[in-house]
Amino acid sequence: MRPRDRSSRSSGARHRRAAEPEQPPEAVPQHGHQHGHGHGPPPRADRRVRTLLWVLLTPCVLATLVGLVLLYPTTDPTADVEAAGPRVDGHVSAAVERACDEEAAPDAGPPDCMALTVQLAEGPLAGRTIEVLISAPGGRAPFGAGDDVVLTAAGGDPADPAAYVVVDLQREVPLLTLFAVFAVAVVGLGRMRGLAALAGLGLTVAVLVGFVLPAVLAGRNALLVAVVGCCAIMFGALYLTHGVSARTSTAVLGTLAGLVLIALMGITFAELAHLTGVDEDTASLAATLGTEVDGRGLVLAGLVIGALGALDDVTVTQTTAVWELRAADPRLPAARLFGSAMRIGRDHLASAVNTLVLAYAGTALPLLLLFSVAERGLGDTLTTQVIATEVVRTLVGSIGLVISVPVTTALAVAVATRGSLRLPDADEPTTGAVPDTAAETTGPILRQS
Q1: N or C: which terminus of the chain has fewer CB atoms within 10 Å of its end residue's CB?
Q2: What is the model's pTM?
Q3: Closest CA relative to residue 425, chosen from 107, 37, 32
């Protein structure tokens, strides 16, 4: 009897399931344990939180725009600078060693010059072949047969073959090739986000070349120009790359706080360390412009601009970490959310500080080698003007990064927990793993990390 009863119940169940319409696939609820990959838009914060962010950032945006207008030079700062002559491309077809002094005795020693036969590709003498004499101490010349070179008319008359001198090698093709590889790699990995990053890079170059350099050359306060230029880069590049959202606005606030701190610390320690910024490059610039150049202002401007790249990297990473942790576990308390994000920040900060040190050490490597050959002690080396400038840049920038991590993390946690983070709808890509049961929460994992 029992087997027959089970069969009857099974048969009845099958008939009932067959009679019931099947649930369409799109109606199946999308649980949080089906992990997303962060391709969708970031969760939106509460409207009041977004309003507060814009209230804080709008004066900064307006101040940046006013600074761009007031500091931009109205006249060409290089109008009175003597032109160096047009630059033309050429190809070296032959190179022959020759004595610089043609009247020197044959037994005076090895030839110390090189006669280059160059075919010009541009200018009024395009297609003509000229001979250019260059210095080649010990028979070593920077240019040789087969090189594509750049020449300029030193005498100012491009129609005079004797006025041309070789000044550099042509590098357009390898540099453009390298940039193309870089662009393909960025777009291939980041897709539309990578394309936006390239647009942000273009904006950065435009601000530096179109505003910062002309304003500094025109005699504007270099530090103020650098701060305004960095704010313009920060607003434009971050919003262009990461989109207009509460998450991006939080990163912008953290970056802005770090920039202000770095600028204030730079002013203080440049004064305490007596950094004047007067070196051969500054002297050459002053001689070319015919005016005084604020060496210390250039040092501070370089400090702020150099720190911005690492600063926005850290702030964006911290803000994204908070948003993703919050999306992964919406029930995570603010204190634990802050602690989890800070663990990420500490690891990132350790590598970022080392990156700054290596970057500045690489810039000053020739000087470090020179001091090593001179057998100067570590204390004497670090306190010289040039090296001390790099030390101040490294330490001030690193302190700014260290402080920006907890500040940005605290701002991100405040925005993420005060606002109602909207979880994605069923038909949207998720931005993280959203647990739907208490057993699936990531709390134990976060406690173990």
Answers
A1: N
A2: 0.72
A3: 32
